[in-house]
Amino acid sequence: MKTQVPLAGYTTLRVGGPADKFVEVETEPELIAAVRDADAAGEPVLVLSGGSNLVIGDDGFRGTVVKVATSGIRVDADACSGATVHVAAGEDWDTVVQRAIAEEWSGLESMSGIPGLAGSTPVQNVGAYGHEVAGTIASVRVWDRTENAIRTIFAAECGFSYRNSRFKADPDRYVVLEVAFHLRLGDLSAPVEYAELARVLDVEPGSRAPMTEVREAVLGLRRGKGMVLDPADHDTWSAGSFFTNPILDTPAEVPAGAPQWPLPDGRVKTSAAWLIEHAGVSKGFTIGAAAVSTKHTLALTNRGQATTKELLTLATHVRSQVHQAFNITLVNEPVLVNCTL
């Protein structure tokens, strides 16, 4: 157990103050014990994963931060049912994707290059380029802090929706221990649903492509938007997309000219990046040492010495401009700890 540990270096935005207490855990029993002990002592707990979808206040965290560093991958596979891959929460997500491609487990390749750890993927229902982890998750093993028990929650019970889940909706209850993915076998990708990716691959939407080619295409697209971590590139000092794409009740609410994607329930999703750009917020717009990415308006970045206050002032400005222009309120995607927007 360490005290007064600066947390900025544990996040991809590189902002945030110190933790009162900090412990790194490498095994599942250690993870459970650390959370259980803090709960028993009545101390606030922050379970820290890869820090890629997190904004921590300048004052830090008044409680115990439990840094997840568990590891291990177990595989059950056969030609008929495919591969069920059990991944410890502390495994690096992109390393898992790379192994899946190498082992010819299909379904994760379009989510290449996403920073963070495997245990966070079901919480946020992580997704990119037409696919979400909800489409491949079989179950999630968790420590239930309310029941003081290990539970297995199957996919149908996870409450997955766009960038949401029961784990995100009840963050003080569940600690993800392991995620099980069910993946088909073969060297071809899941159907390429995203038009931009299909164009880069030169395939028809809905068709399949070699997983290695899909990964390289996705990484190329992400690099072009500053969405692949690079310590030398301040455009990647971000939490990825800072705002979710708004979901509107009817197509009539979508601003003229804005992209729209119909949803099964009759609602429609539109592009937060389009709204930001057309509300007059340009790439590179800066407040203090926080700036809109020079590559992609949906990423808010730390240009080197930004504070959380500066970052959230920038986010507030962006959200206000969009609301004034279109009467649409953007919702932040990162989790905010000891700070508000």
From TrEMBL:
Coiled coil: none annotated. It is found in: Cytoplasm. GO terms for cellular component: cytosol. The active site is at 163, 241 (proton donor), 333. The keyword NADP applies. Its cofactor is FAD. Its EC number is 1.3.1.98. GO terms for biological process: cell division; cell wall organization; peptidoglycan biosynthetic process; regulation of cell shape. It is an enzyme of class 1 (oxidoreductase). One of its GO terms (molecular function) is FAD binding. Residues 15-186 form the FAD-binding PCMH-type domain. Keywords: Cell cycle, Cell division, Cell shape, Cell wall biogenesis/degradation, Cytoplasm, FAD, Flavoprotein, NADP, Oxidoreductase, Peptidoglycan synthesis. Gene3D superfamilies: 3.30.465.10, UDP-N-acetylenolpyruvoylglucosamine reductase, C-terminal domain, Uridine Diphospho-n-acetylenolpyruvylglucosamine Reductase, domain 2. Pathway: Cell wall biogenesis; peptidoglycan biosynthesis. It catalyses: UDP-N-acetyl-alpha-D-muramate + NADP(+) = UDP-N-acetyl-3-O-(1-carboxyvinyl)-alpha-D-glucosamine + NADPH + H(+). Its main location: cytoplasm. The keyword Cell division applies. PANTHER family: UDP-N-ACETYLENOLPYRUVOYLGLUCOSAMINE REDUCTASE. Belongs to the MurB family. Cell wall formation. This is UDP-N-acetylenolpyruvoylglucosamine reductase. It comes from Kribbella solani.
